[in-house]
Design a protein that fits this description.
Blueprint: H1 4-13, H2 23-42, E1 58-59, H3 60-77, H4 82-85, H5 94-105, E2 108-111, E3 116-119, E4 123-128, E5 131-135, E6 144-146, E7 149-153, H6 168-178, E8 182-183, E9 190-193, E10 206-207, E11 218-222, E12 230-235, E13 241-244, H7 247-251, H8 255-265, E14 271-277, E15 280-284, H9 291-300, E16 302-303, E17 312-316, H10 320-329, E18 333-338
Parallel strand pairs: 14-18
Antiparallel strand pairs: 1-3, 2-3, 4-5, 5-7, 6-7, 8-13, 9-10, 9-11, 11-12, 12-13, 14-15, 15-17, 16-17
Amino acid sequence: MVDEILIAMATDLNIDRFVSESDLQFINRLLYSAMACWIKTAALDRSVSFHNDVDQGVSRRHILERCDGILTKMLQRFPSSKPWFEPEPRNESAVQLLRSRLIRHGDLLNVGFQTNLALAPQSITPITSDTECGRGYTLNPSFFYSGISMLRRRQEADGFEERDREDACEWLRNYIRSAWWESAGRLEDIEYFNPFCNSRSNHGCWQDAVPIPVEGIIFARHLASKLPAEYLFIKFGENERIHRIDRFLRETGEYRRVQFALREMVDNNLIADAKIYKGHIHLKLSFYLPEWENRLFESFAWPYSSISDKLEWDMVSLIWPYIKIHLEKLGIVIREEIVDGQL
Protein backbone atom coordinates (compact mmCIF):
# COMPACT_ATOMS: atom_id res chain seq x y z
CA MET A 1 0.00 0.00 0.00
CA VAL A 2 1.53 3.29 -1.12
CA ASP A 3 -0.49 6.47 -0.67
CA GLU A 4 1.17 9.84 -0.11
CA ILE A 5 -1.61 11.12 2.18
CA LEU A 6 -1.46 7.98 4.35
CA ILE A 7 2.30 8.18 4.62
CA ALA A 8 2.13 11.85 5.56
CA MET A 9 -0.58 11.27 8.18
CA ALA A 10 1.21 8.29 9.70
CA THR A 11 4.42 10.34 9.93
CA ASP A 12 2.72 13.37 11.49
CA LEU A 13 0.76 11.27 13.99
CA ASN A 14 3.69 8.92 14.72
CA ILE A 15 1.49 5.88 14.09
CA ASP A 16 3.14 2.65 12.99
CA ARG A 17 1.42 -0.18 11.21
CA PHE A 18 0.88 -3.26 13.37
CA VAL A 19 2.42 -6.59 12.45
CA SER A 20 -0.05 -8.70 10.42
CA GLU A 21 -2.47 -5.78 10.15
CA SER A 22 -4.46 -5.50 6.92
CA ASP A 23 -4.45 -2.38 4.75
CA LEU A 24 -8.04 -1.61 5.75
CA GLN A 25 -7.44 -1.97 9.48
CA PHE A 26 -4.46 0.37 9.28
CA ILE A 27 -6.36 2.97 7.25
CA ASN A 28 -9.27 2.88 9.71
CA ARG A 29 -6.95 3.42 12.67
CA LEU A 30 -5.06 6.17 10.92
CA LEU A 31 -8.18 8.08 9.87
CA TYR A 32 -9.66 7.68 13.37
CA SER A 33 -6.66 9.35 15.03
CA ALA A 34 -6.32 11.88 12.22
CA MET A 35 -9.94 12.98 12.71
CA ALA A 36 -9.25 13.49 16.42
CA CYS A 37 -6.33 15.72 15.44
CA TRP A 38 -8.45 17.68 12.95
CA ILE A 39 -11.23 18.19 15.51
CA LYS A 40 -8.73 19.61 17.99
CA THR A 41 -7.32 21.83 15.25
CA ALA A 42 -10.81 23.10 14.39
CA ALA A 43 -11.23 24.11 18.03
CA LEU A 44 -8.39 26.61 17.50
CA ASP A 45 -10.28 28.51 14.80
CA ARG A 46 -11.14 32.12 15.62
CA SER A 47 -13.65 34.52 14.12
CA VAL A 48 -12.63 37.98 12.90
CA SER A 49 -14.26 39.47 15.99
CA PHE A 50 -12.20 37.32 18.37
CA HIS A 51 -10.63 39.16 21.34
CA ASN A 52 -7.62 37.63 23.05
CA ASP A 53 -8.72 38.66 26.54
CA VAL A 54 -11.80 36.40 26.49
CA ASP A 55 -11.50 32.94 25.00
CA GLN A 56 -14.95 32.02 23.71
CA GLY A 57 -13.77 29.00 21.77
CA VAL A 58 -15.77 27.86 18.75
CA SER A 59 -19.22 26.38 18.42
CA ARG A 60 -19.86 22.66 18.30
CA ARG A 61 -21.60 23.25 14.98
CA HIS A 62 -18.48 24.87 13.51
CA ILE A 63 -16.38 21.83 14.47
CA LEU A 64 -19.00 19.47 13.08
CA GLU A 65 -19.37 21.25 9.75
CA ARG A 66 -15.66 21.73 9.18
CA CYS A 67 -14.63 18.21 10.14
CA ASP A 68 -17.55 16.47 8.47
CA GLY A 69 -16.26 17.95 5.23
CA ILE A 70 -12.76 16.64 5.90
CA LEU A 71 -14.00 13.15 6.73
CA THR A 72 -16.19 13.10 3.61
CA LYS A 73 -13.15 13.85 1.45
CA MET A 74 -11.09 11.18 3.21
CA LEU A 75 -13.81 8.56 2.71
CA GLN A 76 -14.05 9.50 -0.96
CA ARG A 77 -10.34 8.77 -1.23
CA PHE A 78 -10.61 5.59 0.89
CA PRO A 79 -14.16 4.30 0.23
CA SER A 80 -13.51 0.92 1.85
CA SER A 81 -13.40 2.72 5.23
CA LYS A 82 -16.86 4.26 4.84
CA PRO A 83 -18.76 1.36 6.49
CA TRP A 84 -16.36 1.54 9.47
CA PHE A 85 -17.12 5.24 10.02
CA GLU A 86 -20.83 5.00 9.19
CA PRO A 87 -22.18 1.87 10.91
CA GLU A 88 -25.91 1.31 11.31
CA PRO A 89 -27.78 2.29 13.34
CA ARG A 90 -26.15 5.70 13.79
CA ASN A 91 -27.22 7.86 16.73
CA GLU A 92 -24.25 10.18 16.21
CA SER A 93 -22.03 10.96 13.26
CA ALA A 94 -18.37 9.97 13.47
CA VAL A 95 -17.33 13.57 14.13
CA GLN A 96 -19.92 14.00 16.89
CA LEU A 97 -18.80 10.77 18.52
CA LEU A 98 -15.11 11.71 18.38
CA ARG A 99 -15.87 15.23 19.62
CA SER A 100 -17.64 13.78 22.67
CA ARG A 101 -14.75 11.42 23.36
CA LEU A 102 -12.25 14.30 23.20
CA ILE A 103 -14.36 16.23 25.73
CA ARG A 104 -14.44 13.26 28.11
CA HIS A 105 -10.71 12.74 27.63
CA GLY A 106 -10.01 16.37 28.51
CA ASP A 107 -8.55 17.58 25.21
CA LEU A 108 -11.57 19.80 24.56
CA LEU A 109 -13.04 22.09 27.22
CA ASN A 110 -16.47 23.67 27.53
CA VAL A 111 -16.16 27.46 27.39
CA GLY A 112 -18.36 30.47 26.59
CA PHE A 113 -21.19 29.67 29.03
CA GLN A 114 -20.63 25.96 28.28
CA THR A 115 -21.90 26.40 24.73
CA ASN A 116 -18.56 26.42 22.86
CA LEU A 117 -15.43 24.30 22.86
CA ALA A 118 -11.76 25.21 23.10
CA LEU A 119 -8.57 23.18 23.00
CA ALA A 120 -7.33 22.53 26.53
CA PRO A 121 -4.09 24.20 27.73
CA GLN A 122 -1.09 22.00 27.05
CA SER A 123 -0.35 19.66 29.94
CA ILE A 124 1.43 16.36 30.54
CA THR A 125 0.07 13.75 32.96
CA PRO A 126 1.99 10.63 34.04
CA ILE A 127 -0.34 7.62 33.90
CA THR A 128 2.19 4.90 34.73
CA SER A 129 5.79 4.89 35.87
CA ASP A 130 6.96 4.82 32.23
CA THR A 131 4.06 6.41 30.27
CA GLU A 132 2.66 9.92 30.13
CA CYS A 133 -0.23 11.52 28.27
CA GLY A 134 -0.23 14.94 26.63
CA ARG A 135 -3.42 17.02 26.45
CA GLY A 136 -3.95 20.23 24.52
CA TYR A 137 -1.55 19.23 21.72
CA THR A 138 -2.47 18.65 18.09
CA LEU A 139 0.85 17.42 16.71
CA ASN A 140 4.13 17.01 18.54
CA PRO A 141 7.06 14.85 17.38
CA SER A 142 7.76 13.61 20.91
CA PHE A 143 4.27 12.06 21.18
CA PHE A 144 2.47 9.39 19.19
CA TYR A 145 -1.26 8.99 18.79
CA SER A 146 -2.92 6.05 20.52
CA GLY A 147 -6.59 6.20 19.66
CA ILE A 148 -7.55 9.85 20.24
CA SER A 149 -4.86 10.40 22.87
CA MET A 150 -1.21 11.40 22.63
CA LEU A 151 1.28 9.28 24.54
CA ARG A 152 5.00 9.03 25.01
CA ARG A 153 7.46 7.35 27.32
CA ARG A 154 8.05 9.34 30.46
CA GLN A 155 10.76 11.96 30.19
CA GLU A 156 11.50 11.93 33.94
CA ALA A 157 12.20 8.88 36.06
CA ASP A 158 10.94 10.36 39.36
CA GLY A 159 7.80 12.09 40.57
CA PHE A 160 5.19 9.41 39.85
CA GLU A 161 3.01 8.02 42.62
CA GLU A 162 0.86 5.00 41.93
CA ARG A 163 -2.76 5.67 42.85
CA ASP A 164 -4.47 3.21 45.14
CA ARG A 165 -7.18 1.72 42.95
CA GLU A 166 -10.35 0.59 44.72
CA ASP A 167 -11.53 -2.77 43.44
CA ALA A 168 -15.17 -3.42 42.62
CA CYS A 169 -15.86 -5.59 45.68
CA GLU A 170 -14.48 -2.97 48.05
CA TRP A 171 -16.47 -0.28 46.22
CA LEU A 172 -19.70 -2.29 46.54
CA ARG A 173 -19.24 -3.03 50.25
CA ASN A 174 -18.59 0.65 50.95
CA TYR A 175 -21.65 1.57 48.91
CA ILE A 176 -23.88 -0.88 50.81
CA ARG A 177 -22.65 0.39 54.18
CA SER A 178 -23.56 3.98 53.27
CA ALA A 179 -26.83 3.19 51.45
CA TRP A 180 -30.18 4.49 52.69
CA TRP A 181 -32.82 1.77 53.04
CA GLU A 182 -36.60 1.95 53.00
CA SER A 183 -39.49 -0.45 53.42
CA ALA A 184 -39.86 -2.57 50.32
CA GLY A 185 -43.62 -2.52 50.01
CA ARG A 186 -45.05 -4.48 47.11
CA LEU A 187 -42.56 -5.16 44.32
CA GLU A 188 -43.85 -5.90 40.82
CA ASP A 189 -42.22 -6.31 37.40
CA ILE A 190 -38.88 -7.18 39.00
CA GLU A 191 -35.95 -9.03 37.45
CA TYR A 192 -33.10 -10.33 39.57
CA PHE A 193 -29.39 -10.50 38.83
CA ASN A 194 -28.00 -13.98 39.46
CA PRO A 195 -24.20 -13.72 39.86
CA PHE A 196 -23.95 -17.54 39.93
CA CYS A 197 -25.27 -17.76 36.36
CA ASN A 198 -22.95 -19.40 33.83
CA SER A 199 -23.02 -16.59 31.27
CA ARG A 200 -20.21 -14.90 29.35
CA SER A 201 -21.97 -11.56 29.80
CA ASN A 202 -23.80 -9.81 32.61
CA HIS A 203 -26.85 -9.36 30.41
CA GLY A 204 -27.47 -13.11 30.50
CA CYS A 205 -27.65 -13.17 34.30
CA TRP A 206 -31.06 -11.48 34.60
CA GLN A 207 -33.92 -13.82 35.60
CA ASP A 208 -37.41 -13.83 37.08
CA ALA A 209 -36.62 -16.16 39.99
CA VAL A 210 -35.06 -14.81 43.19
CA PRO A 211 -31.38 -15.95 43.37
CA ILE A 212 -29.31 -16.77 46.45
CA PRO A 213 -28.32 -13.52 48.24
CA VAL A 214 -24.65 -12.52 48.28
CA GLU A 215 -23.62 -11.13 51.67
CA GLY A 216 -27.31 -10.61 52.39
CA ILE A 217 -27.93 -8.56 49.23
CA ILE A 218 -29.79 -9.18 45.99
CA PHE A 219 -29.40 -6.88 43.00
CA ALA A 220 -32.56 -6.28 40.99
CA ARG A 221 -34.17 -4.01 38.45
CA HIS A 222 -37.68 -2.69 38.10
CA LEU A 223 -38.94 -2.71 34.54
CA ALA A 224 -41.63 -0.12 33.93
CA SER A 225 -43.24 0.37 30.54
CA LYS A 226 -41.69 3.17 28.46
CA LEU A 227 -39.27 4.11 31.27
CA PRO A 228 -35.57 3.25 31.82
CA ALA A 229 -35.01 0.39 34.22
CA GLU A 230 -34.70 1.33 37.89
CA TYR A 231 -31.94 -0.57 39.72
CA LEU A 232 -32.18 -1.48 43.39
CA PHE A 233 -30.75 -3.61 46.17
CA ILE A 234 -33.04 -5.84 48.19
CA LYS A 235 -32.52 -7.16 51.72
CA PHE A 236 -34.90 -10.05 52.25
CA GLY A 237 -36.04 -11.06 55.72
CA GLU A 238 -38.68 -10.25 58.29
CA ASN A 239 -38.31 -6.55 57.53
CA GLU A 240 -37.75 -6.56 53.80
CA ARG A 241 -35.99 -3.38 52.69
CA ILE A 242 -34.78 -1.87 49.44
CA HIS A 243 -32.29 0.75 48.32
CA ARG A 244 -32.94 2.54 45.04
CA ILE A 245 -29.76 3.24 43.09
CA ASP A 246 -29.26 6.87 42.19
CA ARG A 247 -30.26 7.82 38.65
CA PHE A 248 -26.74 9.14 37.97
CA LEU A 249 -25.28 5.66 38.53
CA ARG A 250 -27.79 4.27 36.09
CA GLU A 251 -27.20 6.90 33.41
CA THR A 252 -23.41 6.53 33.60
CA GLY A 253 -23.52 2.74 33.52
CA GLU A 254 -22.01 2.52 37.02
CA TYR A 255 -24.63 -0.08 37.97
CA ARG A 256 -22.49 -2.46 35.92
CA ARG A 257 -19.79 -2.20 38.60
CA VAL A 258 -22.23 -3.91 40.96
CA GLN A 259 -22.57 -6.83 38.57
CA PHE A 260 -18.82 -7.33 38.25
CA ALA A 261 -18.41 -7.15 42.04
CA LEU A 262 -21.16 -9.69 42.75
CA ARG A 263 -19.71 -12.14 40.24
CA GLU A 264 -16.26 -11.82 41.77
CA MET A 265 -17.67 -12.34 45.27
CA VAL A 266 -19.03 -15.74 44.22
CA ASP A 267 -15.92 -16.67 42.21
CA ASN A 268 -17.75 -16.46 38.89
CA ASN A 269 -15.59 -13.83 37.23
CA LEU A 270 -16.05 -12.73 33.66
CA ILE A 271 -13.23 -13.40 31.18
CA ALA A 272 -11.68 -11.11 28.57
CA ASP A 273 -9.43 -12.41 25.80
CA ALA A 274 -6.27 -10.51 24.95
CA LYS A 275 -4.06 -11.43 22.02
CA ILE A 276 -0.51 -10.22 22.51
CA TYR A 277 1.25 -9.22 19.31
CA LYS A 278 4.60 -7.60 18.79
CA GLY A 279 3.86 -3.93 19.39
CA HIS A 280 0.12 -4.12 20.05
CA ILE A 281 -2.68 -5.83 21.96
CA HIS A 282 -6.05 -6.95 20.61
CA LEU A 283 -8.70 -7.20 23.34
CA LYS A 284 -12.12 -8.81 22.92
CA LEU A 285 -14.89 -8.42 25.48
CA SER A 286 -18.26 -10.16 25.70
CA PHE A 287 -19.73 -7.62 28.13
CA TYR A 288 -20.11 -3.88 28.52
CA LEU A 289 -18.05 -1.90 31.03
CA PRO A 290 -18.92 0.91 33.44
CA GLU A 291 -18.45 4.32 31.87
CA TRP A 292 -15.15 5.12 33.61
CA GLU A 293 -13.41 1.96 32.35
CA ASN A 294 -15.00 2.34 28.93
CA ARG A 295 -13.46 5.82 28.72
CA LEU A 296 -10.00 4.25 28.99
CA PHE A 297 -10.62 2.48 25.69
CA GLU A 298 -12.27 5.53 24.13
CA SER A 299 -9.15 7.53 24.96
CA PHE A 300 -6.25 5.16 24.47
CA ALA A 301 -7.36 2.46 22.01
CA TRP A 302 -8.82 2.03 18.54
CA PRO A 303 -12.26 0.40 18.14
CA TYR A 304 -11.98 -2.64 15.92
CA SER A 305 -15.05 -3.48 13.84
CA SER A 306 -16.45 0.07 13.59
CA ILE A 307 -16.09 3.47 15.20
CA SER A 308 -18.93 2.63 17.61
CA ASP A 309 -17.56 -0.79 18.64
CA LYS A 310 -17.35 -1.09 22.46
CA LEU A 311 -16.40 -4.75 22.70
CA GLU A 312 -13.26 -5.14 20.58
CA TRP A 313 -10.21 -2.87 20.70
CA ASP A 314 -6.62 -2.53 19.46
CA MET A 315 -4.01 -0.67 21.50
CA VAL A 316 -0.26 -0.18 21.67
CA SER A 317 1.64 -2.40 24.09
CA LEU A 318 2.80 0.60 26.15
CA ILE A 319 -0.72 1.39 27.39
CA TRP A 320 -1.81 -2.20 28.03
CA PRO A 321 -0.49 -2.53 31.64
CA TYR A 322 -2.45 0.61 32.60
CA ILE A 323 -5.70 -0.67 31.11
CA LYS A 324 -5.18 -4.24 32.29
CA ILE A 325 -4.94 -3.34 35.96
CA HIS A 326 -8.21 -1.41 35.82
CA LEU A 327 -9.97 -4.39 34.24
CA GLU A 328 -8.59 -6.67 36.95
CA LYS A 329 -9.87 -4.28 39.62
CA LEU A 330 -13.34 -4.93 38.19
CA GLY A 331 -12.80 -8.62 38.82
CA ILE A 332 -12.27 -9.45 35.16
CA VAL A 333 -9.93 -12.34 34.46
CA ILE A 334 -7.61 -11.55 31.53
CA ARG A 335 -6.85 -14.55 29.36
CA GLU A 336 -3.71 -13.66 27.41
CA GLU A 337 -2.46 -15.44 24.31
CA ILE A 338 0.86 -14.68 22.68
CA VAL A 339 0.34 -14.68 18.92
CA ASP A 340 2.88 -14.93 16.13
CA GLY A 341 0.62 -14.83 13.13
CA GLN A 342 -2.53 -13.40 11.71
CA LEU A 343 -5.09 -11.69 13.95
